Amino acid sequence: MTVASNDRRRRIVIVGGVAAGMSAAARTRRLDENARIIVLERGAHVSFANCGLPYYVGGEIQDQDSLLVQTPATLRAALDLDVRVHHEATGLDAARKTVTVRGPQSEEQLSYDALILAPGAVAMRPALPGLDSPRVSTLRTVEDAVRLRERIEERTAAPARRAVVLGAGFIGLEAAEALRRQGLEVDLVELAAHVLPPLETEMAAPVAAELRRLGITVHTGVAAQEVEHLDGHDVVVLADGRRLEAHIVLLSVGVRPDTAVFEAAGVVCERGAILVDGHGRTNLPDVYAAGDAVLSVDAVTGLRRPVALAGPANRAGRAIADHILRPASARPVPSPVGTAIVRVGGITAALTGANSAALREAGIEADTLHLHPTQHAGYFPGATQMALVVHIRRGDGLLLGAQAVGRDGVDKRIDVLATAIRTGLTAADLIDLDLAYSPVYGSAKDPVNLAGMVGTNVLDGTLALWYAQDWERLRQQALILDVRSAAEYAAGHLPGALHIPHTELRDRLDEVRAAAAGRPVRALCGSGVRSHIAHRLLTQSGFDSASLSGGMLTARAVLGDDVLVP
Prior knowledge:
Structural class: alpha/beta
Number of domains: 4
CATH superfamily of the largest domain: FAD/NAD(P)-binding domain
Number of strands: 34
Strand order of the largest sheet: 5-2-1-9-22
Strand content: 25-35%
Helix content: 25-40%
Shape: globular
Radius of gyration: 27 Å
Oligomer: single chain
Number of helices: 17
CATH architecture of the largest domain: 3-Layer(bba) Sandwich
């Protein structure tokens, strides 16, 4: 039935809680004390820390109540919100402005003045034989996390000893580490060529190495083919024939927008994700949408894609509430830059903006910079190198994307670069950023400043780069010149490379000229600093020269140690 009411207060119905939905609800109440705000949540928890679930499974968060940010009772007391858990939206009639809701006891229809759809996403379940096994789990809800933790902590005759995680994205990596922390033997399976597929190949390599250091077995470039049910355990069969025993199979191969009900009611979707305008409005009057179920426009490439991140979801929910209640002054929902970060063992991996694959898809020409600076002054104890990749637009140096991996200082640099992307800064602007400096925290030339310096050198022709991915082709066409020390060269070098330390290069240019025999010279060193010095000398001596971006640190990550010779 339709709920009738003589209450003429503005009636706002929100489908889905957590990030986007609860942000919209809270902002709506702060702007309108008299509004009737109803939040419908299909699950048991309307406001929980879904990003904290792997850390509960791993035991770092001990109490499951710590995962509950708010409850219906606290939200009623603080914000006078009518929060209804275990209530699922099953239909929408845009002409009558009603939502059909199925609750624990009955079904009803709620009228609305404005409707905000924040249904989120559900875990993808590929057509894989055997996924109906009771040992297969996802990690999307508090209930998922509690069941996994209980299974791990069972003290029975058949305790969980082995786990297989399918999917090496952000949640897959966090889950694999959590299971390993609890003492399980863990296999991590990823269809893509490397773990964390959004990362560049060279940035994923140290992440995979850290996973192996933790004792996690990594299988990349291979699909799971079947889950066999046996007595006491399952076996995950890979496409290459390998068989992985498992007492727990964690499915983490991605998510899909949970929009079928609303698409059937006329909400326009693309690839299952809801299309919205700059203020979060759908094609239906007074119906808005936000969060994981929405198709966002990438701030860098302009490509449309869902962005399943809490930050953009929270901001979108707030912006939608503003537009409903203050349309004249409401700011548009910001296009996401896609900043994300993950801890893996003792290292951190983070990214922002576009990666090289997205730039190619969008047809944007870019130069890629590889740096290996320390997180603080090198002379201060504890200095460690990080790997930093920055993409800049060819021609004007507009910052397009960045990634970093390291033991310390990664979050700080990526946050600065995310801000730079949002504000439209160029490589030259990065040089001028006045960042906090103390030997304990950074360097007078911060890694972000250094990225700007390298970028402007590329833009104005002071520096020409070559890339490890091109080595096989270039070794046939150019002289590879290794300008590292004798000890570094002896520890492993590219086959056929001519070795001349950069400090001896000025006195041995004739040797380079004879070896090059008219060919280009492609210089390399450990991280790209010394080969830049060599490049400047070679260029000014008449050679066609370029410096290896990121040096041998990057080359090892791209090519692997197998190509090196002692």
